[in-house]
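Exercise: predict the fold of this chain.
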Amino acid sequence: MLSIVISWCNRAELPRALPHLVEAARLVGGDVTVVNYGGDTTVLADLLRSSRDRLLRLVEVRGEQYFNKARAQNIGAASSTHPVLFFCDCDIVVDPGLIVELAHEVNDRADTFATLAGVTESEHNSRRAGNVVCFGYELNIRLANGRSLRIVDNEEDVEQGTRQAPGLLLVRRCDFARIDGYNGQLHGWGWEDQDMISRLTLGAGLRRVTRGIVTHLSHGDLERTAYYPPVRDRWESRDRMFRQALANYDNDRFLGTYSADNRELSVAPCEVLN
């Protein structure tokens, strides 16, 4: 029932996160696809050496200069087959039972998609906060047709070690296809996940469920942004992507680039890692 998609580019946390995701897939007869988007194939092979499993597949996108998470997610979706998709970062340790529960809920309710409610950092104050110990915002959008969106997001609360998790998304494949997947034109760090929530809500008219806390394997900003197009900082990147997305909504554009990405990108055949 469940296909799990993990986008990867030279991140060392993958072996710690992967066993829990494979177990979630095993519980529902699913599969796990790792999308190598511009990463070192030798490094990835070493990381997966102890994680070989019949449920695990590898897809490699070739010829791209920079990591593009949205396009990687689209390729992962196209390389899998089950009716429910779970998009998860490579540095997230999940409770398999929680993912199975949410997958069943999304599968059984036609008007619903889900995100995890939040993450707890494995290392408190991982962003090395100084005086600002918590930063957050609330976004409200209402369209002329009456559809509305509310997103609450925050960076890590230093005292609690928690933050929201908009990128940990469960969605029915048919609903993913309705909005043509992720928008690969939003290229950078910081808003492709919120854009999916926005388009599933405002474009497809679905209701978002948020539930469950998982663990994020903490790291610094260098690991977070190293393989994206160069920017001065991640705040600049997120602001640019948000403005671009908002202009799309104002012009009634709610489709992603799933179809185009699968036509245009050079993708190596899936390798089943036994």
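Check your answer against the key: Residues 2-272 form a domain with the Spore Coat Polysaccharide Biosynthesis Protein SpsA; Chain A fold (CATH 3.90.550.10).
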